[in-house]
Design a protein that fits this description.
The chain is α+β, with helices and mostly antiparallel strands and 486 residues long. The chain is built from 13 helices and 17 strands. Strand 2 and strand 3 form a beta hairpin. Helix 1 packs antiparallel against helix 3 and helix 1 packs antiparallel against helix 9.
C-alpha cells in the first residue's frame, strides 16, 4: 500500500508540476509574441485574433485550475494524506471548452504570419530564429494546448490504476477520465468539421463549376450539407490524368495539367492559382454504379469500372490498394445515398400503420399555378408536392413560370376535423435544395363543408384558386372532392 501511495504522490506531483510548466510556456506566447506585435501595432486587431486565437482564455482557465490543484496538495500535506485532485478536474474541465475553438482553428493562420514576415522586417525580427522564416519555438508553443488534453488523459488513467477501488476518489477519477475523453472527442470533432469546410472552400476556389448551379460548400438536394467522403488521382484507359472527389451526393471528376497527388489540399502558396476543369458534369450517385465490387490484391489489377448513366468507363489507380479503397468508398457512398432516397420515397404515415381505419378519401386534381416568384431562367423545374401526414405525392416538373400539371392525387382521411393537406410548390434543383415558391393548407373539414354548401351533396368536386402563403406572390388552382365511407 505504501508503494502504491508513493506512486500516486508521484503522478499527482507530475500533474501539478507539468501544469506549472505548461502555464509558464503559454504565457511566453503572450509576452514574447502577442504583446510586442500589439504594442508596436504591427498587426491589426483582427490579425492578432486570427493568429493567437483565445490563448489568453486558456491561460486564465488553467491558472485557476493550477491554483485549485495547489490548494489540494497543500491540504493533503497538512493532513498527511494522499491528495484528492479529482474535484479540481471536475470543477474546471467544463471551463476547458475554450480548447475546442482554439485547437480546431490552430492550423488556419500560419500562412498569415509567413506573409507578414516577408513584408515586415520588424515582424521578422520577432519571429526569426536560426534563419527560418517562422520561429520554430513559437510554433511549438502554439501546439501545447492540443497536446495537453491527451496528457491529462494519460496521467489520470495512471492515477486510477494506483488508487484503491474502495475509495470514493477512485470513482471520481473514473468520472474525471470520462470528462477528459469527452472533451478530446469534442475538440477532434470540431477540428474535423473545420478541416472539412476548409477543403470545400478550397474546391470552390480551385474547380471551375460556373454555370451549372453547383457549389461545393453548400447544402445538397436531400443529403443535408455536402460532405467530402474520399478523393484521389486516377487515369483513364487512354492515359488521361484525372482527379476524383467523392461526396455524399455526387462524384466530381476533374482534369488538370499539374501533377496531382493524394495531398492535393496541402498545396503550397505558389499553387493558389491551380485550377481544375470538370472532366464531366458532377455525377449524382443515383446515376452511378460499380461494374464489379470484387477486391483485388494482384499487382497488375489496378482498374475499376463505373457505369455513369448508361455508359461504362474504366479508370486505373497507381496500385491495387488505392483501387480497392476507391471501390469501397464508392460502394459505401452510393448505397447510403440510395438508402436515403428509398426512405424518402417509401415514407408511410404512422397513421396508416395503426389499427385506426380510414373514414374517407380526398381526391385532389392539381391543375396549375400562377404568378410564382421565380428568377428569370431557362432552367426551371416547377413541381407541386402535397402531403397529409406522411402520405405524399408529387407532380412532374414543368419548365414554366405558370405551370399546368393536371395531376390527380388521392389521400386517405382519418380525422375529418383534424386532418390537413399541405400543398407546396418548388423549383427542383439537382445539386442544392429545391427553391421554395409557396404553400397552402387544405383543412379537410373546410373542404367538406364548402363541398356540401356548393353542391348540397358529397362527391361532386369543387374548384378553388388559393393564394400561396410565406411568399409575396403566387396562386395555385386545385379541384377537390371528399367522399366519406358509409
Amino acid at each position: 500500500m505504501a508503494t502504491k501511495n508513493k506512486t500516486r504522490f508521484d503522478i499527482i506531483n507530475e500533474i501539478h508540476q507539468t501544469e506549472k510548466n505548461y502555464i509558464k510556456n503559454l504565457k511566453l506566447i503572450v509576452e514574447n509574441y502577442k504583446n510586442p506585435l500589439e504594442q508596436r501595432k504591427l498587426l491589426s486587431v483582427i490579425e492578432l485574433d486570427a493568429l493567437f486565437l483565445n490563448i489568453e482564455d486558456i491561460i486564465s482557465v488553467n491558472v485557476r485550475f493550477y491554483n485549485s490543484l495547489s490548494r489540494k496538495l497543500d491540504e493533503a500535506r497538512q493532513n498527511d494524506h494522499v491528495p484528492k485532485i479529482s474535484q479540481s478536474f471536475i470543477d474546471y474541465l467544463p471551463k476547458m471548452q475554450t480548447y475546442v475553438s482554439y485547437v480546431s482553428s490552430l492550423n488556419q493562420n500560419l500562412d498569415l504570419i509567413n506573409e507578414k514576415i516577408k513584408t515586415s522586417q520588424e515582424i521578422a525580427t520577432i519571429f526569426k530564429n536560426g534563419g527560418s522564416s517562422t520561429d520554430f519555438f513559437f510554433n511549438k508553443l502554439r501546439l501545447l494546448p492540443m497536446q495537453r488534453l491527451p496528457l491529462y488523459s494519460l496521467l489520470v488513467e495512471k492515477l486510477i490504476k494506483y488508487t484503491p477501488d474502495i475509495e470514493e476518489e477512485y470513482q471520481n477519477l473514473k468520472m474525471t477520465h470520462r470528462l477528459i475523453v469527452d472533451l478530446i472527442k469534442s475538440v477532434n470533432s470540431e477540428r474535423g468539421k473545420k478541416e472539412d469546410l476548409e477543403k470545400l472552400e478550397w474546391l470552390d476556389e480551385h474547380i471551375n463549376v460556373r454555370g451549372i448551379g453547383f457549389k461545393f460548400k453548400s447544402s445538397t438536394n436531400m443529403m443535408g450539407s455536402r460532405k467530402l467522403c474520399y478523393y484521389g488521382p486516377f487515369v483513364k484507359e487512354s492515359g488521361k490524368e484525372l482527379y476524383g472527389f467523392l461526396f455524399n451526393d455526387t462524384l466530381v471528376i476533374v482534369e488538370s495539367n499539374d501533377i496531382l497527388t493524394n495531398e492535393i489540399f496541402k498545396a503550397k502558396p505558389n499553387h493558389k492559382t491551380l485550377q481544375f476543369q470538370l472532366y464531366k458534369q458532377p455525377i449524382l450517385l443515383e446515376n452511378l454504379s460499380l461494374v464489379q465490387a470484387k477486391q483485388s490484391t494482384t499487382t497488375s489489377d489496378c482498374s475499376f469500372q463505373l457505369i455513369i448513366g448508361e455508359k461504362e468507363y474504366t479508370f486505373k489507380t497507381t496500385n491495387p490498394a488505392l483501387r480497392n479503397e476507391w471501390m469501397k468508398q464508392l460502394q459505401k457512398s452510393i448505397e447510403f445515398y440510395k438508402q436515403k432516397k428509398r426512405s424518402i420515397i417509401h415514407s408511410i404515415s404512422a397513421t396508416n400503420l395503426s389499427q385506426k381505419a380510414a373514414i374517407g378519401r380526398l381526391l385532389v386534381l392539381v391543375m396549375e399555378a400562377q404568378d410564382l416568384m421565380i428568377e428569370p431562367s431557362n432552367d426551371r423545374a416547377i413541381f407541386c408536392e402535397a402531403s397529409l401526414g406522411l402520405q405524399k405525392f408529387s407532380t412532374p416538373s414543368v419548365n414554366s413560370a405558370n405551370p399546368k400539371w393536371n395531376i390527380n392525387m388521392q389521400f386517405q382521411i382519418y380525422d375529418l376535423n383534424k386532418d390537413v393537406v399541405n400543398v407546396m410548390v418548388y423549383d427542383k434543383k439537382i445539386y442544392k435544395p429545391n427553391i421554395f415558391l409557396g404553400k397552402t393548407e387544405l383543412k379537410i373539414y373546410q373542404i367538406y363543408r364548402e363541398q356540401i354548401k356548393d353542391n348540397h351533396q358529397e362527391n361532386n368536386p369543387i374548384t378553388r384558386m388559393f393564394r400561396m402563403s410565406n411568399v409575396p406572390n403566387g396562386k395555385i388552382m386545385l379541384k377537390m372532392s371528399i367522399s366519406i365511407y358509409k
